[in-house]
Amino acid sequence: MKYLHTMVRIKNLDDSLDFYCNKLGMVEVHRYESEAGRFTNIFLSAPDDLSSTKDQASTRRAPVLELTYNWDPEDYTGGRNFGHLAFAVDDIHAFCSNLMKAGVTINRPPRDGFMAFIRSPDNISIELLQKGNALEPVEPWKSMENTGEW
């Protein structure tokens, strides 16, 4: 068995691409639009999951996040009931600092130097984990309280 992708439905294509690509650093690897089905599927990958060749065949083997944008407006509720997405990062303190500077709320700060949680514009819970061993706990994270749900 091999992990293929996680699909989440999104309400606003521009807001979601800004969040996942510009703020989190994911890369769009494939896009599919269905006029008949009135939807767009956008497949994103974490940069570390792409092979060094970055050819079409290799990007399709990388685990991806599938964003489904339905052209006709719908309300989606209960984003947390599917669970969360998880990404490993090189430096959780710096990554969370950059997210905060970009206006992203850190719902569960990396107090332990290892784990943090944020939310997407569509309220999807996202877990950030430090690659390797936990970093030494530092301020402002060490004493920062949780915000909202994660």
Q: For this structure, what is the CATH class of the largest domain?
A: Alpha Beta
With strands numbered from the N-terminus, the spatial order across the biggest sheet is 1-4-3-2
Strand coverage percent: 25-35%
Name given to the CATH homologous superfamily of the largest domain: 2,3-Dihydroxybiphenyl 1,2-Dioxygenase, domain 1
Helix content: 10-25%
Low-confidence stretches: none
- Radius of gyration (Å): 16 Å
**What shape does the CA trace take?**
globular
> Which secondary-structure class do the elements indicate?
alpha/beta
Mean pLDDT: 88
The number of E-state strands comes to 7
Figure out the total of helices. 3
Instruction: Characterize the biggest β-sheet.
Output: 4 strands, mixed
- Which CATH-level-2 architecture of the largest domain? Roll
State the end-to-end distance.
29 Å
Q: Tell me the domain tally.
A: 2
Task: Characterise this structure.
With about 150 residues, this protein is α/β, with parallel strands linked by helices. It has 3 helices and 7 strands, in the order βαββαββαββ. It has 2 domains: about 1-70, 2,3-Dihydroxybiphenyl 1,2-Dioxygenase, domain 1 (Roll), CATH 3.10.180; about 85-145, 2,3-Dihydroxybiphenyl 1,2-Dioxygenase, domain 1. It has helices at about 15-25, 55-60, 90-100, and strands spanning about 5-10, 25-35, 40-45, 65-70, 85-90, 115-120, 125-130. It has a 4-stranded mixed β-sheet with strand order 1-4-3-2, covered by helices on one side. A 3-stranded mixed β-sheet has the order 5-7-6. The mean pLDDT is about 90.
